Amino acid sequence: MGGPGNGKTTLAALLAERLGLVHIELDSLFHVTHLGSATDEEFRAGLVARMDAAPQGWVTCGNYVTKSKNLHIERADTLVFLDQGRVRTTWRVAKRTIRRFVRREELFGNGIREPINNFWRWDPARNVIRWTWVYHPKYRRETPQHIASEAWSHLDVHHFTRPADVAEFVEGLPPADR
User: pTM for the full model?
Assistant: First the structure.
């Protein structure tokens, strides 16, 4: 968990590979086409289907606490909260967004591409760089509140504020039995 630009997707893919688990990207379940997003019911059905299809285990990346109704949290045993600084994460998102636009990279495996006109929009819902800056304090405030709740008390929580700590955590994990 954590705001945009913290490295959630990168870390989840790395953890899934290292541990021999399935990577479930929550953004791909939400952003279904360039025309719209999944309803809450569609999102939850897709999440349950993906988790059920991975009996050996899975790693998710994203937040979507309200939309998922904690379905993945209830089944999880570990949570990694990536909580790096606002300037660092916004810079990462800006670089990533420009790269995706220039290279015409597909987002979330759903045929969605970064539209150029979103760069000039001030609305955070349309401009992911602005979203990152505006909502950084919200993620930083609300995630610890969720972690402290009874519903999340079963989780082994790891809170990282520095890339070096994330790297050390990953290096300390056992490789998957293949």
Answer: 0.91
